[in-house]
Amino acid sequence: MPLTEEEFEKLYKELYEYIALKNKDEVFNIIQKYVILGPVTIETVSNKIPENLRKMLVFEDKGDFIKITKARYLDTENFKRIAEIVRKIGGDYVSAGKDSYFRIPKKKAQQ
Q1: What gap in Å lies between CA 38 and CA 26, rounded to an integer?
Q2: pLDDT tens per residue, range 99-111
Q3: What residues have CB less than 8 Å from 33, skipping those under 6 apart?
Q4: pTM tops 0.70, yes or no
């Protein structure tokens, strides 16, 4: 799920204080590896996935979420790597047989 600027700043400050890093850029780099800042788009999602894996996938904007399907067979190792990245950025896997896909919501769920 993307963070608002306010949420990001709060997380940034907490991390900075907690781990007491001297280099603020290091904290930013750590956070950016795991979250999408700003709007969730095909570009922001695909940029979180290494190029060698990205070539195996098809990205679609479905309005409320980004849908990721396989362009070709994914072996177990590559599937696990993609699933881990998708979970880290707030997505999940929708199991539907041949129509299974990864889903990354564009908005946070209402609580």
Answers
A1: 19
A2: 999 999 987 533 2
A3: none
A4: no
Q: Where in the sequence is the domain holding 71, given as residue range(s)?
A: 42-105
Do 46 and 96 fall within a single domain? yes
Give SS3 for 92.
Answer: strand
Cα separation values, 51 from 38, 45, 87, Å: 21, 12, 18
d(CA 87, CA 85): 5
**Residue 54 included in any domain:** yes
- Residue 103 phi/psi, 5-degree rounding, is -130, 130
Backbone angle region of 63, left / alpha / beta, with phi > 0 → left and psi within -120 to 50 → alpha: left
> Bigger pLDDT: 60 or 12?
60
